[in-house]
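Re: the 242-residue chain
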Amino acid sequence: MNARTPPASFSASKQARRAAARLVAPLALAVLLSGCMTAKLDENRFLPTAITADEGVVILAKPQVEGTGSEDSFMDCVGDKLARGERPMKVHGNQEFQDTLFPWFEASTAPVRAEGVTALLNRPKVARRLADTGVRYVVWLDGNTRKTDGGGSIACAAAPGAAGCIGFGWWEKQSDYEATVWDLKTARSAGSVTTNVTGTSAMVGLVVPLPFIARVQGTACDRLAGQLRSFLAGTDPAAGGG
């Protein structure tokens, strides 16, 4: 019995996939070996802080003149990190806090500077509500995660008896956030913590699409929360796991 000879189109397609794989593989390897992510943390302290077990913290989106503030999901992530771990803190829900202090901490009416809290505290009604919350520190969060660059392409096709993707695509994202800490007891700014994380992700098409994702926003949340924990506790940042 004579062996069946594959159709010319099938052989050509197979050779094309092999040739593309030889081109894509070095690019994929370069992405994997590059580390894919860089991170930076900065801290500026104006006042000593040492949050106690009965004092709370609330995280609010910094009011913006135009556009929106930090993503709700990122604020929730930072709050959850502070509320858990080795040294959990009392994190007050931001919406609950704003509802309790309505309308004084809404985006359109919140004090522009920490010193502006003094005027609010001079109002007995506001002072009582604020004391009832147990919140000592307000953390104003500003920033976002955005795509900054990208390139390449992936082509996928299907045919009788065969299907797959060939190509290489990549994109870079940057998470840039600043957390400004207000001390409501002294009505002053205690300082700020900033984080900047840049990462490159890739999608490699070698018959089956293979994603290599840099966890940019998650890393920014982990680092900012760790540094904030150390900042609020008044400990050495290097010892705070940030």
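The helical segments are 8-33, 72-83, 94-100, 117-121, 124-133, 216-233.
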